Amino acid sequence: MLTKRIIPCLDIKDGRTVKGVNFVDLRDAGDPVELAQRYADEGADELVFLDISATEQKRKTLAELVYHVAEAINIPFTVGGGISSVEDVDILLKNGADKVSINSSAVKRPELINELMAKFGSQCIVVAIDAKQIDGTWKVHLVGGKVPTDIDLFEWAKEVEARGAGEILFTSMDHDGTKNGFANAALAKLSNLVNIPIIASGGAGEVMHFADTFKEGKADAALAASVFHFSEIAIAHLKQELKKEGIPVRI
Questions:
Q1: Whose C-alpha in 11, 31, 149, 198 is 20 to 30 A from the C-alpha of 230?
Q2: Per-residue burial over 107-123, b = 16 or more CB atoms within 10 Å of its CB, e = otherwise
Q3: Annotation says 41 is catalytic
Q4: Which residues constitute the domain of residue 105?
């Protein structure tokens, strides 16, 4: 079994880290550069930054944030939010990001995945998929979960792999912020369908939720936000407990 990764996620709005429940009711969680440094020191394997207020005017601000984060930490990090072109990705990678995450822009124009893969390589292209169950079927949602589509989660996952994505970041909107555990049945199905790594997101509330998503959900990495931001789970403690469960982690 490959080493499993623990990834704190920092949702960025107007230059600050925020956290909500089911994608709403946001509250301040601190300075993103300071949090990034803290997580790197505490043993996080990677970080994800998602600019949830991304607009054309704020691209420069995001690039500046990426530059400051890259100066402050020595672990890989992914940046997402409003990325819709080769030029957007070029700016972020040149400022120090290791990977980029695309979501709504990939659904609206799937060829973007091919273009980014051709220019930068699949290793730095993460496709984020937000989905929730509607009448028993997992449907992809856009614009931070606000816009439902008829696109099936599993069919879309197969397509993004075929187009050249290097990883999939799957967030269950039904589980996001609830702290009741990850969507392990859907994650296991995804892992069986595609050959690229799956990052589990949405639902972390306690140590065993991480163990369960690695064992039952077959996830390659687990992403969480509030349990780390508000010091409910320490990364070092989490990794020690995962090791006791027989899950390979970098200590």
A1: 198
A2: beeeebbebbbeebebe
A3: no
A4: 5-244
